[in-house]
From TrEMBL, chain A:
Gene: pole3
The name this protein goes by in its record: DNA polymerase epsilon subunit 3
InterPro entries with a match to the protein in the record: CBFA_NFYB_domain, DNA_Pol-Epsilon_Subunit, EF_Hand_1_Ca_BS, Histone-fold
Biased composition annotated in UniProt, kind: Basic and acidic residues: 92-125
Entry's Gene Ontology molecular function annotations: chromatin DNA binding; protein heterodimerization activity
UniProtKB/TrEMBL annotation, chain B:
Protein's name according to its UniProt entry: Chromatin accessibility complex protein 1
Entry coiled-coil feature ranges: none
Keyword Heme attached: no
Gene coding for it: LOC120022154
Gene Ontology CC entries for this record: CHRAC
Subcellular localization, as worded in the UniProt entry: Nucleus
Length: 151, 119
């Protein structure tokens, strides 16, 4: 698998934003410093991955999981990250659960509607029902999205 | 937003969606590591988040530590000095070396033949 060097870099705009938000207002960052931090971040990912992978291999697993990454952070002496990482993970899991429930509910609704339609006259009425369903799905989608944003 | 202090701004950015860095790119970097077969979604999420935390930590530590503090500018030398002086950042010494003028370096190796020191 051939990767060009630039593909292993993180997007400059995002890195710059994260740096600026971490520093006090009005502080500038030299271009060189920005580039160096970006490279350091890529190296950090590699180091963390390698470290996490060791934990996975020790546990005879082929798939890296969240615990491996947490263990890697400890190993790398970045314990300060553990708490915020746990919080991010919790928020993610909750979001996933909400999405799953929402899509299960959608499937249920769609199934019920389908049964109703089959009992009535087909043709045009069926088309109208489908349009309504699609609109409601849209609403349900929007609702789910809104919840995520608030989180 | 201008009234917020630095910490609030950091929390704001992190909490609005959770993640700013693109997970697809982070995954690409992770997969370039030898022996890695697959990565589950949660692991990818945490690694991405950790990388953001790392960027913040490196930037802020270097700034607080650095000579650029009075100039209100973060310089490369601040980073290199911080990396050299902080154990947690030792893994970065190869990519964030301190800079030295070529003539000074040549003088150095003239006076002291290069030998690799064990860390």
């Amino acid at each position: 698998m051939a990767e060009r060097p630039e593909d292993l870099n993180l997007p400059n705009a995002v890195i710059t934003r994260i740096i600026k938000e971490a520093l006090p207002d009005g502080v500038n960052v030299s271009k060189e410093a920005r580039r160096a931090i970006s490279q350091a971040a890529s190296v950090f990912v590699l180091y963390a991955t390698s470290c996490a992978n060791n934990f996975a291999m020790k546990a005879k697993r082929k798939t890296l999981n969240a615990t491996d990454v947490m263990s890697a952070m400890e190993e790398m002496e970045f314990e300060r990250f553990l708490q915020p990482l746990r919080e991010s993970l919790e928020a993610y899991k909750k979001g996933q659960k909400g999405k799953k429930e929402a899509s299960e509910q959608k499937r249920k609704d769609a199934k019920e509607k389908k049964n109703d339609v089959e009992e009535n006259d087909k043709s045009r009425e069926e088309e109208e029902e489908e349009e309504e369903r699609m609109e409601e799905d849209q609403d349900a989608d929007n609702e789910v999205e809104e919840e995520e944003v608030e989180n | 937003m201008s009234g917020d202090n630095a910490e609030d701004k950091v929390n704001h950015a992190s909490n609005s969606k959770g993640i700013s860095l693109p997970m697809t790119r982070v995954k690409l970097i992770m997969k370039s590591s030898p022996d890695v077969s697959s990565i589950n979604q949660e692991a990818l999420l945490i690694t991405t988040k950790a990388t953001e935390l790392f960027v913040q930590y490196l930037a802020l530590s270097s700034f607080n530590n650095g000579a650029g503090k009075d100039n209100k500018t973060l310089l490369y030398s601040d980073l290199a000095n911080t990396v050299e002086g902080t154990e947690t950042f030792q893994f970065l010494t190869d990519i964030l070396p301190k800079k030295i003028f070529a003539r000074d370096y040549l003088k150095l190796i003239e006076e002291n033949p290069i030998e690799e020191a064990d860390n």
